[in-house]
Amino acid sequence: MLRFMPVGDSMTIGSAGEHTWRYRMWQHLRETYGGPFALVGPRETLYDKATDAPTSYEYADPGFPRAHLAGWGEGWLHMAPLIGEAVRAHRADILLVSLGLIDLGFYTNAEQTADNARSFVAQARAANPRVRMVLLPVIPNVRAESDSAFAAQVARFNELLAKTAADLDERRSPLLLASPPESYDIHRDTYDGTHPNARGEHKIAAAFADAMHQAWDLGEPYTAV
Question: Does the predicted model carry a pTM greater than 0.85?
Answer without folding.
Answer: yes
